[in-house]
Amino acid sequence: MQRRRNNGLFWGIALITFGLLIVARRADWIDFDWHSLANFWPVLLILAGVNLILERRGNAASLVTTVLLAVAVPFTLFGLFSRDRDDSRYEFRWNDHDDDDDNKAGQTDDDDDNASDSDQGKVRSSTFTEVMEPDTREAVLKLAGGAGRFTISEPTAELIKADTRQTIGNYSMTVERDPTTRIPTIELKPAEENQKIRLKDGDFENRVDVHLNDKPLWTIDVGLGAGDADLDLSQYAIKELKVGVGASDLDLKLGAKANQMDVKLDAGVASVTVEVPKEVGCRIKKDGALNVNQLEGFTETADGEFVSPGYDTATKKINIRFDGGVSSFTVKRY
Questions:
Q1: 165 and 98 in one domain?
Q2: Are residues 191 and 236 located together in one domain of the fold?
Q3: 50, 80, 110: which is the final residue of a domain?
Q4: What DSSP letter does each residue of 13-75 carry, written as one string?
Q5: Which of 90, 198, 296, 327 is an S-S bond match for 267, by CB 3.0 to 4.6 Å?
Q6: Each residue of 103-121: pLDDT tens digit?
Q7: How far apart are CA 130 and CA 128, in angstroms?
Q8: Containing domain of residue 236, as a range?
Q9: Using one digit for the tens of pLDDT, what is the confidence trace for 133-182?
Q10: Which helix (H) or strand (E) holds 11?
Q11: What is the domain count for the chain?
């Protein structure tokens, strides 16, 4: 009961704080480098951890940490999207470091990481494809992105077909096949390691639409920053799925083509909705400091997990592990 009260208090204070920040910024009440606030995001982890410990112990001090967290989250998010007073442009930055990346698509070599302002606003489109080889039984997809909209939808005859549209930077795709198993590992991510986005009059687009072949057994790893992700995987056989999102809306639809699917979801400040087939047994283990959960039709077990009716006897199973910071988590049966 105390956790529910704290959740309501958190969202109320957070919304009020965020609204006040917008009003203050537009009214020019505060002269401040708003983007510097984003550097203090580790404070959110500390506050969330302390809050979780206090809540589980029933300590009244959790009320204080809830209020602090409700104020800190809007300030940090506000820092991610900062506005430059002199040129009326919004700016968003993210870094993508991958020490294991030895191969980058050749067509991205001519792109300037720090594109001039005159280039920004021009939409660049690319299409990436990889041929589906007859002996491909399993495949691995690694998808990374910063801010934007990302989708995985209906199948393709190719192993993968990805369409990208962006006003900043470019994407690159590499495919490496294991010499022994011939399992391909596909990596699709921004070509530049350091992304700096300056938005003039909201003129920004970053969209990635992915289509996969429905024959292989897939292992998928998705890492996204801020934005919107609509991942319809209902037509694919998935062995293992990992999705990490920051400040995002995530809609995830799972299917029943694999006998067992293991799903790991990591969310920062996000709204996460998962759809699971009714004919599949589903088990959910969740953790997080401040989450609003909707798990209708699931029964809580003695060890804190949630299971669907008939899970133990189901021939096909989906196991979900959810770790959320400040998130809304909903699981629906269809």
A1: yes
A2: yes
A3: 80
A4: HHHHHHHHHHHHHHTT-----GGGGGGGHHHHHHHHHHHHHHHHTT-TTHHHHHHHHHHHHHH
A5: 327
A6: 444 344 444 444 444 555 5
A7: 7
A8: 93-333
A9: 999 999 999 999 877 899 999 999 999 999 999 887 789 999 999 999 99
A10: helix 2-26
A11: 2
